[in-house]
Structure prediction request, 304 residues.
Amino acid sequence: MSSPETNRFFVTEEEAGERLDKVLSKRYTEQSRTYFQYLITEKLVLVNGEPVRKRTALQTNDEVEVEFILSPELSLEPEDIPLDIVYEDEYLLAINKPAGLVVHPGAGNWSGTFANALLYHCKQVPDAGDQLRPGIVHRLDKDTSGLLLAAKTNMSQQALVELFSSRKIYKEYWAICLGNPGNGRIEAPIGRHPIHRKKMAVIESGRSASTIYETIAFNGKLSLVKLILETGRTHQIRVHMLHLGTPILGDETYGRKQMNQKYKINRQLLHAKHLELEHPITKKNLKLEASLPEDFSKITEQIH
Prediction:
């Protein structure tokens, strides 16, 4: 399931002493101070874990957490964005998401998302818990390509949520990794990085996370790896592959900048290749496949 669109940051020395709403409007310039005052009033902005007033003066190293939602002045509009549809019936839709397509609106991406495209394509879809995610029951990172499911009715939305929550959906990814991880299963808890707050990391206090990995091919430098998600933590595959010492090629957050530049890849080569599930309404067994994008295929040809 999707988690709310939340950003965290630590207050710098330059920001210390300034009002909370002012700091937020400077950091997130695409939105007004009025918008952030609305979030603060709705207790969607926390300072050191607690809701505060908009006039609160910040201190150096205060941790600010912002949950972005649509305000009454904003709305999620349908947009005619082409979708590569893999499967569709009256209950659900599966697309092959291209790298670069954001799943739902959030900071810096208030339009041009899959949610906008879904509203246009389906005309009306269920509310998956908040205004930003109509029909959306799981997510892929912006630069991860591949299979993405969405519900078209309230009944199918609720059933899909249950399938994801109970881990009854087979989720297979392919990745291009630096080095060779071999074959195995990694169980390593994942949580927020203690220093770099926009990153996730393997930490003892994190949530349990399990990934099965199998190397399909290796050319001495790069490997094509099949990965099966047993849990669904934020950035799970990317963090687990880094933990194994074989980060994903192109990953600007967890990868190796020099190797990314060498191969001229500027997004993580991670692709949601295969989903298998019992249809939430018809109970038919669905096996969905998403073809590899061009940048991924070119590197794959060099490995085989």
Remarks:
- The longest strand covers residues 170-178.
- Residues 154-165 form the longest helix (12 residues).
